[in-house]
Amino acid sequence: MPRTAPAATTSAPTRRHLLLAGAFGVASLAALGTLAPARADDAVWTEEFLTRAETREGFLVDAMDEWQVENAKFIIAVIKGHGLDEQAATITLATAIVESWLRNYEPAVDLDSGGLFQQRPSMGWGTYDEVRHKKRAVDAFLGLGDHSQAPGLTQLSPDYHQWGPGAAAQAVQISAHPERYAEQMPAAKTLWDRYAADVAPYTD
Length: 204
Hints:
- This protein has one domain: Lysozyme (Orthogonal Bundle).
- Helix content is 42%, strand content 0%.
- It contains ten helices and no strands.
- InterPro entries: TAT_signal.
- It comes from Brachybacterium aquaticum.
- This is Peptidoglycan-binding protein.
């Protein structure tokens, strides 16, 4: 899929807020505060967070916006909730970086693909809404989602610890550019090291 140049980090209001303000026309910038990740003080992952439409502007591991950070943390939380380890997390994170720059991509611009992993309903990954629901998308990628008929990581490469970097991700994604997953493994490892210790397992 085509990629645009990574977005620069800006002060408030953020570039994302300005883009959204343009998209919604007369909506005031003050109202855009409600578009921050819908996560309560007690760290509950809400349904709004799991399904909210987002834009995709770019990815730099040290210039991530609030959505990218929260999506990385959420992936780690789901991985831990399934009792899986760092290797599973880095494979999953690297895949989401490649496919969506850690944004829950809403428009179907590449055939019918969408969501964090650009999963396609026509290929058995779930419905239009399910591939854009973050928990279901992560579960499907892992091969642990009852809603998905497509095989995932734990089904295609249960011995993924023995696989080369990126190979396990490619087994699931069947990408035309398999080398891209290995390229993002260092960034994925950085995200795990940065956030894993402070993220509780998510099992809902």
